[in-house]
Amino acid sequence: MELRYDNLKDKPEAFLAFTGLNTKEFQILLHAFTLAWEHYVQQNNLPAELRQRDYGGGRKARLETCEDKLLFILVYFKTYPLQEVLAFHFDMSQSQACEWIHILSEVLRMSLNALGHIPERDAKKVKELLESYMDLLNVLMARRVLLLMGQSVADNAPRIRKSKSVYTVARRKLIR
């Protein structure tokens, strides 16, 4: 059985396992991917006078639809199979799989950039981002602990130390 979008779209568990997305998320990404693909084709197409055939002439690609192209590159990035394995599942040669990986990686990057979900590549910015998330996580954890102990966040005045009975009462509230 070939891996094709039409074969997987009605199997949500398998679709999620292969792509890491559900079908609704896939459709959102597909719209941006289609626009990025059209832009890529316009940018990398030879002018008509230099072409041997008209655009669309020649042998048909194994990945005819944008759905199949997006599925192909998502399967690659989700599972990282050998190119030979990926080629087998999509009924093409290993060299064709290699070419598609290079082309579609760029198109996927363009579509993620259009959606504002491009991964950060600068290590310093990643570190700053992680530190800000850790600060936020610490604040949220502190609030959670205070709520579990029976205090409201507004009552959080600096205290030297709580007695053991306060912690026991908080634990009993959790158990009930």
What's the overall average pLDDT, rounded? 82
The figure for the number of domains is 2
Radius of gyration: 26 Å
Q: Work out the helicity level.
A: 55-70%
The count of DSSP E runs of length 2 or more, i.e. the number of strands, is 0
Per DSSP, the total helix count is: 8
Distance between the termini: 53 Å
Task: Describe this protein's structure.
The protein has helices at 5-8, 12-19, 23-44, 66-79, 83-89, 94-115, 123-148, 164-175. The protein is mainly α. The protein folds into two domains: 5-115, no CATH class; 123-175. The longest helix has 26 residues, at 123-148.
Q: What's a concise summary of this model?
A:
This protein has 176 residues and is mainly alpha-helical. It is 65% helix and 0% strand.
Descriptive keywords:
176 residues
Strand and helix layout:
Elements: H1 5-8, H2 12-19, H3 23-44, H4 66-79, H5 83-89, H6 94-115, H7 123-148, H8 164-175
